Amino acid sequence: MGDENAKAEAMQIIGAFQVLPRLVVFDLDYTLWPFYCECRSKREMPSLYPHAKGIVHALKEKGIDIAIASRSPTADIANTFLDKLSLKPFFVAQEIFSSWTHKTDHFHRIHSRTGVPFNSMLFFDDENRNIQAVSKMGVTSILVGNGVNLGALRQGLTKFSENWNTVEKNKQKWRTKFSQNPESSNKNEEK
Known about the structure:
The protein is globular. The protein starts with a helix and ends with a helix. By secondary structure, the protein is an alpha/beta fold. It has helices at about 5-15, 50-60, 75-85, 105-115, 130-135, 150-180, 185-190, and strands spanning about 25, 65-70, 90-95, 120-125, 140-145. Strands 3-2-1-4-5 form a 5-stranded parallel beta sheet, sandwiched between helices. Helix 1 crosses helix 2 (about 50-60). The protein is about 45% helix and about 15% strand. Helix 5 links the parallel strand 4 and strand 5.
């Protein structure tokens, strides 16, 4: 599937959801492209997974911000590859640095830079330890097996919508519980 076909299908998938993330964050190695940067040379021409470029273009066209969270120890190579692939301008934040924190530091920096709350983010990564750590921050996180693809996009947007709806229902329950009878908490304290 070519970039344009992937973009068109991604646009359809995104259009099917009423609730969308404000920011989608991608890992690089084995998520957007099928290799580790540190095993490559800056002189090489990198390639992306087949649907990756179409997905990035569709997200941007739909007005959804995009960022990178990568623990690559070779940020210089990663940045060179992003330039060669003409992707750098698409990202509102690029946190590419080696870390032992399973990307929690990356997400704190992305949040500081963008102001987007963690629960308004969707994250794709190929390492379960990163998915687990970032999920605990409130970010909807999707583990990808063979890079980001249209199926992973659909799965991510579905999970994001489910998480968002759960949070909204809980907020509504809380508002209803505490706004209907403000004296109920006082009565419990008096007993």
